[in-house]
Design a protein that fits this description.
This protein is an alpha/beta fold and about 700 residues long. The protein has 19 helices and 14 strands. Helices cover about 60% and strands about 10% of the residues. Helix 8 runs antiparallel to helix 13.
Length: about 700
């Protein structure tokens, strides 16, 4: 598989594009530039993203961790070639799905391939766990141990044998252990312990059966006495039923008579109805309208009486010419006196005119109770307003009188329809009579309903014909010693006690029968002992099988180890300048140790420096890739060389360049030294931004 181009809206990648070439690719990027995001994107595109995974403290689920920062839906597309053909792998998101459905299209034909999820298993031929433990190498994932799923172990077993990959030795051992636990788990559970418990119970049952025979006669006697007591109670119950039936029939008869009387009384009252509820409602509504109109008319009349003066006084607009005429006459008289007496004519005449004029004007204003013309004008305006108000009140009174008369005529028309010569004054009494009638009608209707309910109640749960048949039965004059309910209690208790004794008797007979068939119990005990012996034998066989498979697993690891040990030792020795020439793999769990040469003692890997330990792990990872994976599986390294010194980086890149002749290799790095190596060796390089 050769990846050509990747397009991603994923985490910090926003519609980003990354072009790769066949062979080796070295891509430089600073921290937080998206190198690890591109690596995670490739893994998700091949093997999908889990929507069931939940974010926990310190660990964020991929579906949350790689939500696009731009707020867009996740999207991814990879253009790649496989077996000489070009394909496009695309995943989209929507409707609660996050890069769930993979679509693979053959570029030449446009045909969409039907490949089940996860598509990476079909395209690369390996499962996700193997991909992550071998060819997908990150700085924090460089260790080769910790495969909890058994997938890497399956690959290792397939390499060492010709067996299938579907079942690993670890899984077989786990299954054997489960079978052993089903037979016997410590001292608490398992089929063996259950059989042992059953055997103990069988022995106890045989011993106890011999102590129970003497109880048989006593139980038979008690059961007989209880049955006789129950029969006597049943006879008394039958007499009580007859008496109760007779009483019930009497109750029903009384209730029916009360119902018939109530219905007859209701029918008689309904025949006395003179005004229907609808007519009464209409009369009441019209009467209320009439009262309202009469109230309005009365109010108008009262207001009109309050506004009408005894005499309408007409107020002039001023003194007029009378003061002038009076003053002029007085002036002429003064002038005449001048000629007769010889007084000063003109001053006297003017003074006389003025005195007379002002006296006349003052008298005029005093007459109307004002001081000047302004107050006189205000008085005239007030008088005019009163006149207008009086006219309006007269108009309102006339209109209210007309409406009142109309309402009265309407009410009279409705009363005439009733007959009986009713007048408007009779309306309150009519309405009161209707209310009283309705109350009586309602009371009688409720009485009928009550009587009906009572009649129905006494019939509920009772068959009249059955009661009549039962009441006709002949019984002796002996009255039951208790009520039917008490008799039923006596009967029930006797029956229950009898049933308890019967169950005790049945259990006792069963135990006695078991005692009498002691041979059957002994046969069962023999069968249990045989089955127990067989289970113990199976348990021993499972233990032996588990031990043998464990030894076989060790042997397989021994056969597999030299293949990977040799390849890993060559790589590790090359990186360390032949300082360490030996790499040991202890078992399929990839427990590692190293040595300077075959004659030297092995050294615990925890004694190595951090950088050297990373170099060892990477050597083993590359050896596993070469041993387990097809050449079509690409190798991705995400800052896997970050702890290498410059000299060992140079050697590792040289080795990777050699390996890239057979498979595509992509190296992400946050150092420029890898990019400079690529430039010197004509290797495809680039920058992740």
């Amino acid at each position: 598989m050769i990846i050509k181009t990747m397009y991603a809206t994923f985490g910090k990648l926003d519609e980003a594009r990354l072009d790769l070439s066949e062979g080796m690719n070295v891509l430089y990027g600073e921290n937080e530039s998206g190198k690890s995001t591109w690596s995670a994107f490739l893994r998700v595109m091949l093997y999908g993203i889990s929507t069931k995974e939940r974010t926990k403290t310190g660990v964020m689920a991929d579906k949350d961790k790689f939500l696009p920062w731009a707020g867009k839906p996740m999207y991814g597309k990879i253009e790649f070639s496989l077996d000489g053909k070009d394909y496009i792998l695309e995943r989209t998101s929507g409707k609660g799905k996050v890069l769930q459905d993979a679509k693979i299209t053959e570029v030449e034909t446009g045909k969409v391939l039907d490949i089940p999820e996860p598509v990476g298993e079909t395209l690369l031929g390996i499962r996700r766990e193997v991909f992550e433990r071998t060819s997908f190498i990150g700085q924090a994932q460089i260790a080769v141990s910790g495969d909890k799923t058994g997938e890497l172990e399956k690959r290792i077993c397939a390499l060492a044998t010709t067996g299938e990959e579907d079942v690993s030795q670890k899984q077989v051992i786990d299954r054997l252990e489960r079978e052993k636990r089903a037979l016997k788990y410590n001292k608490r559970s398992g089929e063996i312990l259950e059989l042992e418990d059953e055997l103990t119970k069988l022995n106890k049952t045989i011993d106890e059966a011999q102590r129970e025979a003497f109880e048989l006669t006593t139980l038979h006697t008690e059961i007989q006495a209880l049955r006789e007591k129950e029969e006597r109670a049943l006879g008394d119950i039958e007499r009580a039923k007859v008496l109760e039936a007779r009483r019930n029939l009497e109750y029903i008869k009384v209730a029916q008579n009360e119902l018939e009387e109530a219905r007859a009384e209701l029918k008689s009252l309904e025949e006395q109805e003179t005004v229907t509820p609808q007519q009464a409602s209409e009369i009441e509504a019209k009467y209320k309208q009439y009262e309202e109109k009469m109230r309005i008319y009365t109010n108008c009349c009262e207001r009109l009486d309050g506004e009408s003066p005894a005499e309408q006084q007409e107020i002039p607009d001023g003194p007029g010419t009378k003061p002038v005429i009076s003053a002029a006459i007085c002036g002429l008289v003064s002038l005449a006196l001048y000629f007769l007496i010889g007084l000063f004519a003109i001053p006297v005449a003017v003074l006389t005119f003025a005195v007379v004029y002002f006296a006349a004007v003052s008298a005029f204003y005093k007459k109307y109770g004002v001081k000047n013309r302004g107050e006189l004008n205000l008085m005239r305006e007030d008088a005019a307003k009163k006149v207008r108000t009086l006219e309006i009140l007269q108009e309102d009174c006339a209109r209210a009188k007309g409406e009142c008369d109309a309402a009265e005529e309407t009410l009279k028309a409705i009363l005439n329809m009733l007959g009986g010569g009713y007048s408007v004054a009779d309306v309150p009494q009519i309405l009161e009579n209707v209310r009283e009638y309705q109350l009586k009608l309602k009371a009688l209707s409720q009485k009928v309903e009550t009587c009906t309910a009572k009649c129905d109640a006494v019939k509920v749960g009772r068959d009249i014909e059955e009661l009549e048949t039962l009441a006709e039965k002949s019984i002796n004059d002996e009255t039951p010693c208790a009520s039917e309910e008490q008799l039923r209690t006596i009967c029930t208790r006797a029956r229950e006690e009898s049933e308890v004794r019967a169950r005790q008797l049945a259990a006792l007979e069963e135990r006695i029968c078991a005692r009498g068939e002691l041979g059957a119990l002994q046969a069962r005990r023999s069968a249990v002992e045989e089955e127990l012996a067989e289970k113990n034998k199976n348990y021993e066989a499972l233990s032996l099988a588990s031990q043998l498979i464990t030894e076989l697993q060790t042997e397989l690891a021994r056969k597999f180890a030299p293949t990977v040990e040799k390849a890993a030792a060559e790589i590790f020795g090359y990186l360390t300048g032949e300082r360490f020439k030996v790499v040991n793999i202890e078992n399929a769990d990839m427990a590692l140790s190293v040595a300077e040469n075959p004659a030297s003692p092995t050294r615990n890997i925890l004694q190595l420096s951090g950088g050297t330990l990373d170099e060892l792990y990477l050597s083993v990872r590359l050896a596993l890739c070469e041993a387990l994976l097809d050449k079509k599986v690409p190798i991705f390294l995400d800052d896997a060389l970050v702890n290498f010194d410059d000299a060992r980086v140079e050697k590792m890149l040289t080795l990777l360049k050699k390996l890239s002749n057979d498979r595509q290799i992509v190296v992400f790095s946050c150092h420029l030294r890898e990019q400079e190596f690529a430039k010197r060796n004509n290797i495809t390089g680039g920058t992740v931004k």
